[in-house]
Design goal:
Elements: H1 11-54, H2 63-76, E1 87-92, E2 95-107, E3 113-125
Antiparallel strand pairs: 1-2, 2-3
Helix pairs in contact: 1-2
Amino acid sequence: MNHQHQNGMTTLGWIIVISIFAFIVVTGFKILPLYLDFMNVKNAMAAVERRAEEGNAIDPRSKRDLWIALANQLRINSVYGLKRENFKFVRKDGVTTMTVDYEARKPYFDRMFIGAHFVHSVDINK
């Protein structure tokens, strides 16, 4: 008698593999916007840094000027969830350090959230 054995995954095996893949994809779709927003924040801070160092109507000694320029740049980059309290401007030895520190959360499943904590600093030498 010649018995042939069938090889491969069962239906339950396929369901488990597809479930794990779906979980990873959903998690990626939830996390990706958080990091894209952070990249937009970093780009806005870099643009303000460039403008301040070039002397384009931004006084790096003035926290008000820096905040107005940064708020405008954030609007241009479509970042709306951050407030003035998320940014710190410190002037020391002729260098202004602009720091952002915030947490971002997104709903995940039911009452669970997925989140990240972001911190980034830029030094303006002028």
